[in-house]
Amino acid sequence: MAGRGTPATALLDKQRVAHTLHSYEHDPRHESYGLEAAEALGLAPERVFKTLVAEVDGKLAVGVVPVTVQLDLKGLAAALKGKKAKMAVVADAERATGYVAGGISPLGQKKRLPVVVDESAMQFETVFCSAGRRGLEVEITPAELVRLTNAVVAGISA
Question: Does pLDDT of 3 surpass 70?
Fold first, then answer.
């Protein structure tokens, strides 16, 4: 399982982006995928980012925020020059991204959605986000994450 690639890892390899994969044994009983990753890998949770799919004015978009915070839906809408945002239906998020909940990566999504990365990511040399499956995180520079996802950087954490 750990050696099997994902669309996210394929994108990183194709683009020749420096990154490190970190895997851990996912516990289905854990209440938070992101906090589980931070704990399992011994990381400061503010460096581990979760990928959340929302609807902004009826269109799907992605917010990437630290696992310790909530997504500020108003902030997400504003960053994308929209009026209103709400969390997406899980099935819609999975269908659009090609990933399962808890393993949704901002990288290599089936349908390229607008992405907003929380500004707090920029203070770190590297950050961690899902590599496209539960139990697999990718460590990457925030600048490369923003570049590869064509993201907007804004304050979207609550």
Answer: no
CA-to-CA separations, 58 to 89, 109, 149, in angstroms, rounded: 12, 19, 20
Coil, helix or strand for 64?
A: strand
SS3 13: helix
140, 101, 134: which is closest to 13 by C-alpha?
140
Report the DSSP pairing between strands 85-87 and 152-154: unpaired
**pLDDT (tens digit, 9 = 90+) per residue, 74-89?**
999 999 999 999 999 9
> What is the CA 6 to chain-centroid distance, rounded?
14
Cβ-contact 121, 142 below 8 angstroms:
yes
pLDDT per position as a tens digit, 102-119:
899 999 999 999 999 999
Per-residue DSSP letter, 157: B
**158 alpha carbon, distance to own chain's centre:** 16
